[in-house]
Predict the structure of Putative 3-methyladenine DNA glycosylase.
Amino acid sequence: MTGHPVDRDDLLRPIDRDDLLRPVDRDDLLRPVDHDDLLRPVTDVARALLGCHVSRAGVTVRITETEAYAGLTDPASRVLSRPTAHNAPVFGPPGHAFVYFTYGHHWMLCVVTGPVGVPDVVLLRAGEVVEGHDVVAARRGGARPRDWCRGPGRLTRALGVDGSFSGVDLVTARHRGGPDADEALRLTTGDAVGPATVATGPRVGVRGPGGDGDAYPWRFWFDGDPTVSAYRAAAPRPRPRVPE
């Protein structure tokens, strides 16, 4: 990849969407994400995380699909409307992980964004394994490489992430209880993104107003990337049975 040199100080300043499209030197692409990078609106962060890398214990995944959730105003984020022991990380500082269990058997990994007290998160929906292929192949059985992280539950299985990582600082890569090289979960910048490579649309499986792709086109992905998950609308609610 080629591009013009960019000052490190310039990379860390607050930036808007146009700034995200600038090319940067390869040497700066894999720097740790800064906490301040994640203080922008959650939809901007969701797009900016495309091409970033999430790594743990020798496995690195390049993020190819994300979804934004704005806890205070988003009809799809009702579970985040008030703090509980379970969702406390989302009300904390940006750059921390929020990991939750869903559908009875899937762990989902989110990046907390915005200022303290604002429960905005970006769900990491899909990615491409770029390091640790042997480890992921063992974890994912006979799945094809394109499917290793093709969906948020598959992504966490590939990384070996579960609920114990909720609240971990992804910027400093500190695991719960202190530094631990074997358990570190880290978020770093990755490949620069061009304007023609990113698509947006409705979030997967979201019911009601929050699933409206015109009002909430808050799913972001690399257009044409084979590791991106398939879109599925929310299943309709079952109709109550009427006694005969």
Observations:
- Confidence is low (pLDDT under 50) at residues 1-29.
- The helical segments are 8-11, 17-20, 26-29, 42-48, 133-139, 152-159.
- Residues 139 and 158 are 6 Å apart (CA to CA).
